[in-house]
Design brief:
By secondary structure, the protein is mostly helical. It is built from 17 helices and 7 strands. It starts with a helix and ends with a helix. The model is unreliable at 1-12 (pLDDT under 50).
Length: 454
Amino acid sequence: MVSAAEQLAANINFGAFSKAKELKKRIWFTLAALVIFRLCTYVPLPGTDPAAVAAFVQQARTGLVGMFNMFSGGGLERMSIIALGIMPYISSSIIMQLLTSMSPTLAQLKKEGDMGRKKINQYTRYGTVVLTAVQGYALAVALEGMTVAITGTGEVRNLVFDPGLFFRSTTVITMVGGTMFLMWLGEQVTARGVGNGISLIIFAGIVAQLPAALLQTLDLGRTGALQPMVIISLIVLAIGLIYFIVFVERAQRRLLIQYPRRQQGNKMFQGDSSHLPMKLNTAGVIPPIFASSLLLMPMTIASFSAQSGSSGFLTDIAALLGQGQPLYIAIYVALIVFFAFFYTAIVFNPEETAGNLKRFGGFIAGIRPGERTAEYLDYVLTRLTVVGAIYLSIVCVIPELLIARYSVPFYLGGTSLLIVVNVTMDTVTQIHSHLMAHQYEGLLKKARLRGRRT
C-alpha cells in the first residue's frame, strides 16, 4: 500500500518547484555563497610567487599536497587567502566531539538544549582560530624554505618574495581570516540555504576541479603515460563506485515496531505497526573527511619539507606516508573505522531510542521493552557499523592504490566520489522535503478555504 507521503512525493513536479518561492530563494542564496567561495580561491596570499607555487603544487599534486589542494578547492594550488580551506574547523569539531564524549562537564552542557549547543559551537570556533593560527604559521615557515625549478626554463625560484617575520605575521592573519570567513559562509548556507553549508563548500571545491582532472587524465593517455584501456577501466571503475555508493547509502535495516491494541470507550482499536529504519552507513561521509583532516596538515608539512630538500625525520615520515604506502593505508583505514563507530555512537543512542519506544508503548517483536530493547538495538547497530566501516574503507582505499599506481588526479579518488555523491543525495533530499512541505501547506490552505465556505 502506498502511503500518503509517497503519493505526495510522486505528485511533486516542476510546477510545484516553480511555485515554491522560499525554496528558490534558498537555492539562489546557496549558489551565490558557493560562487563567493570559488572567487576567494583566486585571491592570492600576499608575499608569495603565484607561478612558483603553482609549479610546486603541480609537481606534488599526486600526493598529500594533492589531497590538501582538493579539499581547499584549488586554493592551495593558487596559494589563496583560503589555502587552508575549511579543514581547521573540521579538526576543531573533531576535538570538541571527542572532548564532549570524555568530559562530563561538556556532556552535561550538550544536554542543556540550544544554549548548551551554542556554547559548544563557540568553543569550536575558538579552537578553529587556534588551529588555523598554528597551521598558518607552519605553512608560512614551510613556504619560506621552498624552491622550485620552473619547467621549461630551468629557473629555480623561491615561493616567497620576502621571507621574514612580516610575511609570517601576514600569513597567519590572512589564513585565520579566510578560514573563519569560510566557516561563517558555511553556517549561513546551512541556516538560509539548502543543505549542509560546510559539506557543500567541500563539494564545490571538488566538483570545480573535476573537469581539469578528466582533461589531465586524457592528456596522460595522449602522451602515452597511460594506456587507453587503463583510462577506460578507470572511468568504468568510477561509474561503478558511484552506483555502489548510491546503493549502499540507501540501504537500510528496517526493524518492525509494533504497538499494542488500545480501547477507547466501547471500541477496541487494532494495534498499529511501523518500521525503525537503521542505515547501513549511519556515519555517512563524516569518517573519511575526519580521517583525511587528521592526516592532512602534519603529512602535508612533512611532504613540503621533503620536497624542499630538507633532511630529518619529516622526510622519513613523508616517505612512509606517501601515496599508496602501507603505513598510510593502515592509518587511513584505522581512522575511518574509528570515526565510523565514534560518529555512529553520537548520532544514534540505543538507550534513548529504546526509552522513547517504551514511553509510547512500542516494542520490537520478541524483545522485551526497555533494557533488552536497547541491547538488541546496540547489537544490530554494531553489526551495521562494521559493514559500513568496511564499505567506507574499500571505497576510499582501492582508488587510492590505483591513483598511486597510475598517477591519475586525486579528484577521481574514492574519498572525493564519496563526498560528491553523499552531498548530492543529502541536498536533493532536503530540496525534496522543502517541496513536500510546500505542497502540504497548499493542501492545508485549500482545506481551510473549503471549511470557511461550508
